[in-house]
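Dear colleagues,

As part of the handover before I leave the project, I'm documenting each prediction I ran so the next person doesn't have to rerun anything. This entry is a single chain, and its sequence is reproduced below.
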Amino acid sequence: MASIKLKGDTSGEVTISAPAVAGTTTLELPATSSTLATQNSLGVRNLIINGDMRVAQRGTSVAGLNTTINGYYTVDRFVTIFNTGGTANSYGTFTQSQDTDVPTGQGFANSLKMDCTSASVGLVAGSLVLLQHRLEGQNLQHLKKGTSNAESITLSFWVKSNKTGTYITTLDDNDNTRSISKPYTINSANTWEKKTITFDGDTSGVLGNDNGSSLVLNLWLVVGTNYTSGTSQELWNTKTTANLAYGQTVNLADSTSNYINITGVQLEVGDTATPFEHIPFDMNLLRCQRYFWKTFPTSVAPAQNTATSNMLFAGIRADVLAGLDFTVEMRAAPTLISYNPYASNSSFRVYGGGDHTVVGIVADTKRIMWINLGSPFTPPNGVHGHITASAEL
């Protein structure tokens, strides 16, 4: 009989025997720090979408971020949150970009960079800047949160900054108003470092089995005393504002030389960080398109008058009502915006027929939208224009 030995870490080894075949020998798979089940788990281990920062449908760089308007600016699925605390520019001004600075030899091509371009005029109690990733409850049921079998969750990521010191990362349970915060330290300036943080399972608070924002990962960059004046909350408890960023010593907005790069963000079940789960770009893009979709080419940022043409449909009826399918089913019926490739307005350009105002774009379902130009054009001319659809959490 020939055999294959599968070696784990502390659980011994399993031998699979089969009839001997001439010329074969014993194959031993080396032990690792993770279990065999973890190494070969099927499906998607990483709860984070686009953790390698490869997809940036909205654009690769946005300057002048210093408003209280929170939003998605560059890299998909990572939303930037600002709060002034009532004082203008109390958190500085930033340029956010999809950067090519990455840790060597880890298989990454991009990182998300926050670069301070105007220092804060004086950090006040309510000031904050943070990066968030929001997760649907229906994708988290295997965490068994709110039961006696609640699973631990491990966060790992690569980070580089000129600002050494203690930073805070938080998980918020939006369904039950609970949170847990853990510190990490950047030890060496201008050096890529890998961080690993394990959050205990929470036996209180079941997450909703729906498409809502149940769990939120927060990476704190700038924080006022409203969020640091409490006590350490390294175990799950009722969400208390003063505890959220307790222990953070770094203010990324106190100098225009400050920056931070982040990539390889992975959140997974268990108390061990496994190697980052690299998936093909097309799969990553499709997952992002559940939340944001556009008719522009992937490399073109949505904007009016881009000279990037797209024929959405050819005219076949005078009432000019047409339906388009989204590439994937979106999380919810999205908010739609129309773009004119040839002018700075939201009209569509009819080939040979000028601009036609878009009277209505309706997301009839998560799968299809309806477009009405409001006035007829002569078939068979084509209608050129672009659309973005957002169903973000």
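Residues 236 and 336 are 38 Å apart (CA to CA). The first strand starts at residue 2 and ends at 7.

All the best with the project,
I.
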